[in-house]
Design goal:
The structure holds two protein chains of two kinds. By secondary structure, chain A is mainly alpha-helical. Chain A contains 16 helices and four strands. Chain A starts with a helix and ends with a helix. Chain B is of the alpha/beta class. Chain B has a six-stranded mixed beta sheet, with helices on both faces. Chain B has a four-stranded antiparallel beta sheet with strand order 2-1-4-5. Classes of the chains: A mainly alpha, B alpha/beta.
Chain lengths: ~400, ~240
């Protein structure tokens, strides 16, 4: 029996390592999540840094002491402009410069518009948020003085305010970052399913479509050995996919300034091993289910359609946990996919891998996988599966 | 030796094989001749145990196929109706895979593959992947993989279907070689010429029943025709056993 399984496994391994399509999806798709995480986190770290004080260089500060005082009060780092301020703005040392015009004081005193030049480099995305903040400060200074002037003349400043806009931003970077970290278990679960998908399709539906299943079964090899060999290679690919995803995340999380985002998450060696131990058993189940579906499918295309739909199912628990968290019970660990999610969530929260919960998830996965494989083996005895093309 | 006794098989309402019996002797070529849909393929599939007969039994070298299908399959080489190959594997890898599924490994396996390369003139093809092979080349690989364990019984389902003249001649030569070695060869065909050119014994099947069974000379004598083709047409036209 073992030699038969080995023969099938070796053949499938060789066959699939030559299959560009299966390899690409197993090796490159897993990197998608970590890359996305890195990019989004970097952008958000930029937003968070937008909360830092704006660095303004001022030319002719002595002509507008009132304005300078106002800016300082509201947290701007104001200083006299160096001679090369334009270059330093382009290099990002200074966010913006204010050039107070020569006749500022005179116009100010006469109640005419007093000119201030705002010098910035719009191509620098990093300082854009801070320059915007500076503009808001200038606008509110202008509005404040205007209101004072109107009151002095006995006019209510409210007349000059037609629409009052209050901005309320719900998306704090912290919240978004936490949400993104919730993506890690989702993407790991998907990797467990995506990694072996093409292999399962090719090994079962492909075998039927090519008309190679009938010749294969004319050999004195037990059906169970055929299924086992094909399942093992599927599991292998899925595991590779999970490991790549996890390593990708480990690197991505290392790149991202999580502390700046106020997110507590540690992804050191113990956590990584714990996550591996939590997720890898899922590949047994994922591969078994995929083999079963792919055995039913008459063609590559049909199997692909069904398995792509199936790929959506394991994302459901993760989505619910991410967007509408509920209090998990111990028994929930027995549900495949959901159980692994809960395990990884706890590890990411710094609680480590819980042995009891892990055993429960395993106790559910092993018999379920065995059941799928048993049904697969039964199917290989059916005439409509062997010959139905 | 292959023995088929009163096998029946129905798929739903459709009766595919209704009482077929015949014997294929060692060192002889037996042809299963019949029009399309006569039940030839189903009969062969019952022999290599991928279809279980509703009634009756098939015996290969004294082994009841239903009782020990794996042992029976080990004694036959099959070129089934479906002859699909693995496009990403080379010819040698195909033969290695099927050889291992027959329990052959290592040096014995490689030696057997080398012998097949000789027998089937596979030298040019052996290291090539099968993607893009011609019909004749694909057939060669399929037959080589059926013979990889040097079986005493060979079942060939429409072995010359879709082949050009050269490949057909090569296939005939191979069948004769196998007979010389004492192999039991049972092949199915719907082409009269194919069967008459090769067979020691012809089993004519129509509508799931054996309508005639004998040497070509016996069949001619029985029907009173001078050509086998006329005899075939007359026999197949008859409902029920003759």
């Amino acid at each position: 029996m073992r030699r038969y399984v080995l023969a099938v496994f070796l053949k499938e391994a060789k066959d699939h390592l030559r299959d560009q399509r299966a390899l690409t999806s197993a090796l490159f798709f897993p990197l998608f999540g970590p890359v996305l995480l890195t990019i989004v986190m970097q952008v958000m770290a930029g937003w968070a840094a937008g909360g830092q004080s704006v660095k303004v260089a001022v030319v002719g500060a002595e002509r507008a002491p009132n304005l300078i005082l106002f800016l300082r009060q509201y947290g701007a780092a104001v200083r006299d402009a160096p001679l090369d301020y334009e270059r330093r703005i382009q290099e990002g040392d200074i966010d913006a410069a204010l050039v107070i015009s020569e006749d500022y004081a005179e116009n100010w005193a006469r109640g005419r518009p007093a000119t201030v030049q705002l010098v910035s480099d719009e191509s620098r995305r990093a300082s854009a948020a801070r320059v915007q903040r500076l503009e808001q400060l200038l606008a509110s200074y202008s509005g404040m003085i205007a209101a004072q002037r109107l009151m002095v003349r006995g006019v209510s400043p409210d007349l000059a305010r037609v629409v009052q806009v209050d901005r309320i931003d719900l998306a704090t970077p912290e919240k978004l970052a936490a949400l993104l970290l919730n993506m890690i278990p989702i993407l790991l679960v998907i990797a467990a399913f995506v990694g072996g998908m093409n292999v399962a399709i090719d090994a079962m539906a492909g075998e039927r479509e090519r008309g190679s299943l009938e010749p294969l079964l004319t050999n004195p090899v037990p059906r169970g050995a055929v299924i086992a060999g094909k399942w093992l290679i599927t599991v292998g690919m899925a595991c590779v996919s999970v490991v790549i995803t996890l390593v990708g995340f480990a690197i991505a999380v290392g790149q991202v300034p999580l502390e700046e985002l106020g997110v507590k998450a540690s992804l050191g060696a113990p956590e990584l091993l714990g996550i591996l131990a939590a997720i890898l058993p899922l590949t047994l189940f994922a591969s078994a289910v995929q083999m079963l579906v792919a055995t039913y499918a008459r063609s590559f295309k049909e199997a692909q359609t069904w398995l792509s739909l199936l790929l959506l199912v394991p994302t459901i628990p993760g989505m619910i946990l991410a967007f509408a968290p509920f209090e998990p019970t111990f028994g929930m660990n027995a549900v495949p996919v959901l159980g692994q999610h809960l395990l990884v969530d706890r590890i990411l929260a710094g609680e480590g891998l819980n042995g009891g919960r892990w055993l429960l998830s395993l106790a559910a996965i092993v018999p379920l996988s065995a059941l799928c494989l048993w049904v697969c083996t039964r199917l290989l005895h059916q005439e409509r599966i062997i010959f139905g093309r | 030796m292959i023995l088929v006794e009163n096998v029946h098989k129905r798929f739903g309402d459709k009766v595919a094989v209704e009482d077929v019996s015949f014997v294929a002797e060692d060192g002889a070529v037996t042809g299963l001749l019949g029009p399309n849909g006569a039940g030839k393929t189903t009969t062969l599939r019952m022999l290599y145990s991928l279809i279980v007969p509703d009634r009756g039994r098939a015996v290969v070298d004294g082994i009841d196929v239903a009782q020990d299908p794996a042992a029976a399959r080990a004694r036959i080489g099959v070129l089934p109706d479906a002859k699909g190959l693995y496009p990403r594997l080379t010819v040698r890898e195909h033969l290695r895979y099927f050889g291992r599924l027959h329990g052959l490994w290592g040096r014995a396996l490689e030696a057997r593959i080398d012998a097949l390369v000789e027998l089937l003139e596979l030298k040019e093809l052996i290291h090539r992947r099968t993607e893009g092979f011609s019909q004749g080349e694909r057939m060669k690989v399929a037959i080589a993989r059926a013979l990889v364990h040097d079986p005493k019984n060979v079942l060939l389902d429409e072995p010359t279907n879709g082949l050009d003249v050269m490949s057909t001649r090569a296939m005939r030569a191979l069948i004769r070689r196998l007979r010389e070695q004492g192999t039991t060869v049972l092949f199915s065909s719907h082409v009269m010429q194919e069967v008459s050119a090769l067979c020691d014994r012809i089993v004519i099947v129509a509508h799931g029943r054996v309508v005639a069974d004998g040497t070509p000379a016996e069949l001619l004598e029985r029907t009173g025709h001078h050509s086998l083709e006329d005899a075939f047409v007359q026999l197949v036209g008859i409902e029920g056993p003759a």
